[in-house]
Amino acid sequence: MSEVYIENGILCIRHTDNASPYPIEIDRCDSYPKILKFIHQLTGKTWCTRDIICNFIEVACEHHGLDSHRDGAS
């Protein structure tokens, strides 16, 4: 079971029940380009799944008031 949440300014990705969450400072993903940079980084992790990527995008965008369903061009 994977879970993506924010705690104390850290976006946490818990990819398994018994593993420590993978931490990302939430301020480091406050724009579309920064989110894309982290998506690229996350895809290199063996534990990363499509659901984790989708949840990461939704949580980061929601926190920063970005629309995860737009193209980010404007």
Which structural class do you get from the secondary structure elements? alpha+beta
How can the largest sheet be summarized?
3 strands, antiparallel
Helix share of residues? 25-40%
Q: Based on CA inertia axes, which overall geometry fits?
A: globular
Number of helices: 2
- Uncertain stretches: none
Oligomer: single chain
Radius of gyration: 12 Å
CA(first)-CA(last) distance: 35 Å
Q: Please state the average pLDDT score.
A: 91
Note the beta-strand portion.
15-25%
For the secondary structure, the number of strands is: 3
Your description of this structure?
The chain is α+β, with helices and mostly antiparallel strands and 74 residues long. It has 2 helices and 3 strands. The chain has helices at 32-42, 50-64, and strands spanning 3-7, 10-14, 22-25. The chain has a 3-stranded antiparallel β-sheet with strand order 1-2-3, with helices on one face.
